[in-house]
What does this fold into?
Amino acid sequence: MSPVTATALWLPPLLIAWLWRPRQAAGPSAWILLIAFGALGAWALWFGLYAHPGEPASFAVWRPTVLYWTLAGIMIMGPLLGWGYPVKIILGTYFALSNREWRWINLGLATVYTILGGANLLVASEASYKDWVGFKYSCMMNLLIIVLFRLNFVWLPILADVSIYLYRRTTAAYRYLSSLF
Amino acid sequence: MPAVERKPENLVELIWPGRRSEQVMLETTGKSGGAGEIFSIDSKPGFVAKIYHATTSQAHLAQYRRKIQWMVDYKPALPQVPVEYQDIVQLAWPEALILRESRFVGFAMQKIAFDRTLELDYLLNRRQSAQEGLDADFGTLVTVSFNLASIINCLHDRRIAIVDLKPMNVKVYKAELYVSILDCDGFHIATDEFRSDAPQVTPEYLAPEFHDKAVAHPEAQDRFALATIIFRLLNYGIHPFSGVASDQYKYPPELAGRIKQGLYPYGKVAHKNVRKVPASVHEAFPDSLRELFDRAFACSGYSRPSAHEWVDALAIYASKHSGQMSPCSKGHLRFAGRPCPTCMRDALIHGAEVRRRSFLARVQAAPARTLQYVKKTLRQTHSSPFQAALAQAQFTLVQLAPPAPISTRNAIALEILWISGLLITYWWTK
It folds into this structure.
């Protein structure tokens, strides 16, 4: 993919996101996650699409660990610094849970990410390259779980809203065109 | 009244039975058919003259003369009508030969009062017949069918067949319900002393065995046409060979083809390839009539019910005193002991319309209703307690928070960030 095509693909959605952004104030945990992902995304764009020949080959082993430990660090530091529980941003606010429950979930997810980051390095150094690749992809299961949560609780209602809006507009347009003939 | 045009060629001689002759003057009426033109006769208001076109060949005129001469001499006995209806003309039968300068040119027949009659075609459509001043209930239709069968029975008794029997050639007296058959000079005659063919046919009323060939048995043809007319009269104009083909069946588009293949879907035993027209009310007919229809359309030749059988079958329904036609709860006449065909038809027509509208409304509303249901389910905002319970039943483990009070656009903006985050995560972990 050429740099121009890549830019044409990621820039418009971000522009829309900026234009349609909520005007409510975001919490500190949301900001820190946004900044972290901005940095990780910039790295990914730079080394994945624009820089040649890309990042150093030895860094590939560290990549999952950097992500997991970054997230784990944010989740551990967030409550300590009084920024709330970042897990609320990751899972979304679909569940009416008490702060105690959120604290435990936050801690649980931070522990999982810490272990995953360490396990990645361990497997990369001890197991074969093929097994390491298998381990990496099996870790993507947590990514899939988050996608499913998001799909069920957020994307489907949005899709329903958009579909109803489009259906009404199409029906109105059909009636208008019918009245013309 | 327009001035009478007294041309010398309109002076003709009438030759009545017994060879009594009379000179009369013809007056043009402007009515013309395939074979000739109709004139009124100035001194005979009860008669009209049919003068064959000048283009008719001498050979044809000679044939016509022989036939008309025989018809004038042998008028068939017709069903008795009450004394007060003596002016009713049941057959436009030739009554006198017409000669011009001693040459045969046509014949005189009794005049049918067109203002008192309507074409039988109109009775096939209730609205049309009502507009013409005849409220065609089932009592009326059965009576008309009976009267038509009676006349044909009389003709068949004399070995005379109509052959081209069709609603257009039949008139119905609106008040008296007697029928009148036109174009008698086209009838088939097969007596011992005289024989004359009738080549004219109409495919929609032609028996299957005579398609693509001459009508070898004219009375069998009449039996088929009579049954077809009665079926259409009683079944709201639906032709006995119109139907709906089953899937994959190669159904002839025109009625003639369906008649030829015997695709009759209204039998007591259903046809395997053709279904009835949904608006048909034939199931409200009594068994005696249905059996006659089945014989008429499923059999061939002289196995079909004769006009006499039709007269016998219809007589009890045409008689007011037999009690075989009784009113339904809405006052429509129906065959005793059978469902009301009028109510059945109303239910079929209006029911189908109501169902069609309701179905269309449901189809139109379905996408929006589905989306609303999905939305309510996801947001846990069902107003119906049952649906709310049903929707909540899936999430009994964890209580869900109320939806965030943000617009769809804001939600889309957040999700773009979310998807970007997921893509970044994917890149970092792949």
Notes: Chain A touches chain B through 51 residues (CB under 8 Å). The radius of gyration of chain A is 21 Å.
